[in-house]
Specification:
alpha/beta; two-stranded antiparallel sheet; 7-stranded mixed β-sheet; globular; 277 residues
Length: 277
């Protein structure tokens, strides 16, 4: 992500670094970066036949693009996220009082969203991009906490970066690893990241796939803003400053600039479908 892109981080319990403006970053995420995972969301929805009768729980829903796509197909959606800035944008999109069947809850714990009047969910999504940072333990714990809300046999979808050699953005993300403390920096995805998280949460893997999700930006400034909005560079910003990170990112993006000034980075994302036992 990411999971969106990036890492639209599910365990957003920690606050943003003091040099990051949460409102600006949320807006950059929704206007620039979130759409980069649109092919992933559409592929997952098509494979799982999301539509009327689907009851979807979106963990770390961010500003709600994936929920909007599902709701437009007739699904009943609930989105959880601990960041008020992102949820405010999701509410603008989904309008809980409008024609779409949507519910949004500010929380980082699925248990806080339990509702005796709500039927069990048939689909749970966690689009934090597993493997972007070494925080899969937190995601596994959150998934385990969400399982009591899901029906037996419900699908749970995890997402992560594909092989580094097929993700041009991996070279740019090394800036985060270089500038941040080693234990907080970015790392390339490992082959079994998704399966390890699923098994740790008590889920049964039931298929996977890969989707091309290129990152395309109008210019270098948009690319820097979009990438910073993912949260992947938070540790680097905290260790240095926003200006230094922006400078390093701009330099790393140079190979992906086109003659017209746009930035284009081909990427592949992987998703895993697991089942609630």
């Amino acid at each position: 992500m990411t999971p969106t892109l990036v890492r639209e981080h599910l365990a957003h319990a920690g606050s943003a670094p003091p040099r990051v403006n949460p409102r600006k970053r949320a807006r950059d995420w929704s206007e620039i970066q979130e759409r980069m995972l649109l092919p992933l969301h559409e592929t997952v929805h098509e494979r799982l036949e999301v539509g009327p009768g689907t009851r979807l729980l979106g963990l770390g829903c961010g500003s709600g693009l994936a929920l909007l796509l599902a709701a437009a197909k007739g699904a009943t959606v609930t989105g959880l996220d601990s960041r008020p800035e992102h949820l405010a944008l999701a509410r603008e999109r989904l309008d809980p009082d409008g024609p779409l069947d949507a519910r949004l809850v500010q929380t980082d714990s699925p248990a806080d969203a339990a509702d005796d009047d709500t039927p069990s969910y048939t689909l749970v999504t966690a689009y934090e991009t597993v493997g972007a940072l070494d925080d899969s333990d937190d995601l596994g714990d959150t998934l385990a906490a969400a399982l009591p809300l899901a029906a037996r046999g419900a699908a749970v979808v995890l997402a992560g970066w594909g092989p580094p050699e097929r993700c041009a953005t991996s070279t740019v993300l090394r800036v985060a690893a270089k500038l941040a403390e080693p234990r907080h920096g970015w790392r390339p995805a490992r082959r079994d990241d998704l399966e390890e998280v699923a098994l740790r949460a008590g889920l049964k893997p039931d298929g996977s796939g890969r989707v091309a999700c290129p990152f395309g930006y109008a210019d270098t400034d948009s690319a820097v803003r979009g990438l910073v909005s993912t949260g992947l560079f938070d540790a680097a910003i905290a260790a240095t400053d926003r200006k230094q990170v922006g400078k390093e990112l701009t330099e790393s993006l140079h190979p992906y600039r086109r003659p017209d000034g746009t930035v284009w980075m081909p990427n592949v994302f992987r998703y895993l479908i697991a089942r609630v036992p």
